[in-house]
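User: For a benchmark we're assembling, each entry needs the component sequences followed by a predicted structure for the full assembly. Here are entry 17's components. Please fill in the structure.
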Amino acid sequence: MKYLIILSALFLASCSTPVPLTAKFPEVPETLLKGCPKQLETIEGDNVTIVDFVKTVVRNYGTYHECASKNDSWIEWYQIQKKLWDESE
Amino acid sequence: MFILHFLPDFIIHLVFFVGVLATIAGFVLGFIPLIKSYQLPIQIIGILLLSFGLFIEGGLANEAAWQLKVKEVEAKLAEKEAESQQENVKIVEKLVTKTEFVKGKTQEVIKYLDKEVVKDNEVIKYVEMCPAIPQIILKSVNDAATISHEATK
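Assistant: Structure for entry 17:
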């Protein structure tokens, strides 16, 4: 009889029901995962003219702007994904 | 409830239904001679089956309600996931457009420089006067350009 009671308790136990839901972490676009250059372009040589100098500075500004765009995209991605995540809760 | 995972729904309903019938038979139909002779066992079995049936029916209803909620949340998550993918595409498109614009504009500035340098007298005069940038200035600019590289060392 006592085994029957134990068996019934086991069968009627409700704590073993697993929740079949797992929230997936949002995917990040591959483009955003490429980092910015580790360092900017440097100027080498003994006879560097003002024109070469300015060209390097211009290219470095370009690199900065590209990197800033990527950073802005990360912020936008986070804000949108957070909004979607909050809405799904 | 663990038992609900392998017990078919119709058995649960059957247990409950038999419990109801046995209880009615045991308590109401006692005047029938066949039932009267087994009234007490029918009453006990009826009450037991009814209690167990009610309990397990409750569990079944609760399980069904949860499953419905899970389905609703699953649908909502799938919808949000699709929306997230769409937003990702928009973000990437925006970034690619912006990057292309920056690259184009940088090239444009360099081309402008190349074009203007050869014909602008002021620039020509300046280059003649200062043919090379002093090393100390180059070093300062290079040092500034490599700050983040040094920081990661």
